[in-house]
Amino acid sequence: AIWSVVMAAVGVAFLGAYLMNRQNWGFLIPAYVFFAIAALIFVATRGLLRGEMIGAFVMSLVGLPFLFVWTRAPKQNWWALIPAYVMFTIAVFLLLVNILPGVVIGGFWVLAVALPFFVVYIVNPRNNWWALIPGGILGATGVGLSIASGLKALNAILPIALILGGAYLLFNQVLRRTGLAVPPTVPTSGPAADRPPQGPDKPLE
Question: Is the pTM of this model over 0.70?
Fold first, then answer.
């Protein structure tokens, strides 16, 4: 426990150096590292986390800074979502490895690899249609592996599917608000502009 306090104290020192001059943002890196080490020592020595849960905790600690970098400037720092997604996916995998059957774990991993392709397609459907090919293949494979494990396994992954679906809806809303999602283009000239409006806005005849 004493080492946890020592690591936290060093982290406070770096954080104080940053607060004294916020232009020196580089002090935030060692501050976070020492805080993360302090938290890891604390949960390990207190027996709060054991086995794979410690590994999941470490992966989450590694992924958090990348997620923070993305929130600072979503358009410019979109790349930070890649390592953040990888770290959090590994964390979830470590948590489920001893809970779900092996076939379901394989299905989860394949679906986790397929999800980024679907996100790439959603960001720009017109230009990124190709992402549906690997995403569809991997997604179908993941679903097939899950179905192969039986109805009991499907009941086990149903809550996970609901969580992933909710995360997808939330992420889609974030993309729209930050301007990363490409809005549908409306033609302003040519034959396409002379066509009557289509869809729900079209007046009833």
Answer: no
Tokens of 154: 């499907």
Contact status, residue 84 vs residue 61, Cβ threshold 8 Å: no
Please write the tens of the pLDDT for every residue from 112-151: 888 888 888 887 788 888 888 888 888 887 777 766 665 4
SS (H, E, C) the chain: CHHHHHHHHHHHHHHHHHHHCCCCHHHHHHHHHHHHHHHHHHHHHCCCCCCHHHHHHHHHHHHHHHHHHHHHCCCCCHHHHHHHHHHHHHHHHHHHCCCCCHHHHHHHHHHHHHHHHHHHHHHCCCCCHHHHHHHHHHHHHHHHHHHHCCHHHHHHHHHHHHHHHHHHHHHHHHHHHHCCCCCCCCCCCCHHHHCCCCCCCCCCC
